[in-house]
Design the sequence.
């Protein structure tokens, strides 16, 4: 929309680390007619010498042609790309018609890549916008009115139908409404009944579970414009808890930030026309704490599921597991030590992003990252941020993800670990839903680690139940006796299987 995000790769990855995220995947967005390869190299140039943590890239497809198909193949085979994003909205800019979507899905399937979709009906939005502006509704509230829930749900339904027709996987980005989540859940349930697993995946955002559109609070034009993103925040105050329950039940699999930050003066580009307000909000720094506060602290999500939806599932879907998403020999030492008793009040005055507002302003979060290691280097130490600009590196993401294309389930464990008898190790296995967390929780890729966790938030443990948090395992005793070997094999912590001591 003619505006450039105020968070560049340095500012954005710095904020990510401060919040407990140790790798990002950004979107390459070519202009219509621009070479995908040229846009890819432009993004790599922007990131080089700036990133504080590792990063990967998705690539957007703004139009379809044989040349686009050839460049998609080149990106997959030679440049570490395994996912492509298509838009069903933004008519005249990024929006693809159904035929083009069909062709891109088919190309992704042939290449072993993952098609990703921004699901909103762009034609309806275009007509609604014209009607609203003509009637005199030009403020930020018009943005949500032009994109009601059923417009998102219709597009999700259409994208899932196209995916089924092609036989391709599908990843729906930023599910923002009840209706859209219900449609996705219906298709996943159908696939699971037919095939035993689903190839359709859904993501929601820190923004959608951490807040909603509240006319009583968003009284000024500036505050309201700061909350404009697409699909929009919903006015139903029950939407956040609904989406959190969908995450808890595995109807949604991941939580992103969709971080796209524009200062107040940039948002003012749409002062007299809501359709010209640059779309996007913050989220990269606060994602982990917001999801912990609204999910785990509220008793909706257990700590192990928190690790899965913030970290491990994404690592598996985008085929960087166990390099990421796992603590193991050979895995990257991206580790977060999570303090569930820590408190933090979110504010634009104290966050590390360049943007001059925060959509979670004033929210008190119970649960904060205490230490963050990136590639083995301590970058957050009890609140002291010690990032190094340029320290991060590009992470190629191979095609043909086993998790996506071989119908691997979250609960499955790699055969090689099951067939080996390891001494002095703790096996980690992620369960699909309800998992009893061990005494420590550790994972990789923007994840949580928690030592000696005893959670007292409502819903976590009822009176009279056995304390599933406690463990007889003692790391200190193992190291004090060099001969003695551990006989404890802890099953079902989060993040996937592991070897060695934590």
Sequence:
């Amino acid at each position: 929309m003619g505006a450039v995000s105020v968070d560049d790769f340095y500012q954005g990855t710095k904020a990510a680390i401060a919040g407990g995220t140790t790798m990002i995947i950004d979107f390459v967005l070519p202009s219509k007619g621009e070479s995908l390869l040229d846009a890819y190299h432009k993004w790599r140039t922007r990131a080089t010498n700036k990133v504080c943590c590792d990063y990967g890239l998705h690539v957007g497809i703004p139009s379809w042609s044989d040349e686009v198909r050839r460049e998609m193949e080149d990106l997959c085979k030679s440049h570490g790309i395994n996912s492509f994003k298509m838009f069903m909205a933004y008519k005249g800019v990024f929006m693809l018609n159904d035929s083009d979507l069909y062709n891109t899905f088919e190309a992704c399937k042939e290449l072993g890549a993952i098609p990703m979709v921004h699901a909103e009906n762009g034609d309806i939005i275009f007509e609604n916008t014209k009607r609203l502006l003509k009637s005199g509704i030009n403020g930020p509230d018009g943005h949500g009115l032009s994109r009601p829930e059923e417009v998102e749900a219709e597009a999700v339904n259409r994208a899932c139908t196209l995916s089924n027709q092609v036989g391709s996987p599908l990843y729906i980005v930023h599910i923002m409404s009840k209706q859209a989540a219900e449609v996705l859940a219906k298709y996943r349930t159908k696939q699971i009944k037919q095939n035993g697993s689903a190839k359709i995946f859904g993501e929601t955002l820190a923004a959608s579970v951490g807040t909603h559109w509240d006319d009583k609070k968003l009284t000024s034009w500036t505050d309201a414009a700061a909350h404009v993103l697409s699909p929009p925040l919903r006015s139903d105050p029950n939407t956040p808890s609904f989406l959190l329950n969908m995450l808890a039940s595995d109807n949604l699999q991941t939580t992103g930030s969709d971080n796209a930050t524009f200062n107040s003066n940039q948002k003012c580009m749409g002062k007299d026309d809501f359709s010209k307000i640059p779309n996007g909000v913050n989220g990269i720094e606060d994602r982990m704490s917001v999801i912990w506060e609204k999910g785990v602290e509220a008793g909706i999500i257990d700590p192990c599921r928190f690790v899965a939806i913030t970290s491990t599932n994404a690592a598996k879907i985008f085929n960087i597991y166990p390099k990421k998403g796992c603590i193991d020999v050979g895995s990257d030492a991206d580790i977060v030590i999570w303090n569930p008793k820590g408190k933090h009040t979110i504010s634009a005055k104290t966050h590390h992003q360049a943007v001059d507002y925060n959509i979670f302003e004033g929210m008190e979060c119970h649960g904060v990252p205490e230490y963050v290691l990136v590639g083995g280097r301590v970058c957050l130490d009890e609140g002291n941020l010690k990032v190094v600009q340029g320290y991060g590196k590009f992470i190629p993401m191979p095609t043909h993800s086993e998790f996506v294309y071989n119908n691997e389930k979250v609960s499955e464990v790699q055969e090689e670990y099951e067939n080996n008898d390891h001494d002095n190790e703790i096996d980690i296995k992620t369960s699909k839903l309800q998992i009893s967390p061990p005494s420590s929780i550790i994972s990789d890729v923007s994840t949580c680690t928690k030592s000696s966790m005893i959670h007292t938030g409502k819903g976590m443990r009822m009176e009279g139940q056995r304390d599933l948090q406690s463990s007889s395992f003692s790391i200190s005793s193992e190291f004090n006796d060099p001969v003695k070997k551990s006989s404890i094999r802890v099953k079902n912590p989060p993040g996937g299987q592991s070897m060695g001591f934590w």
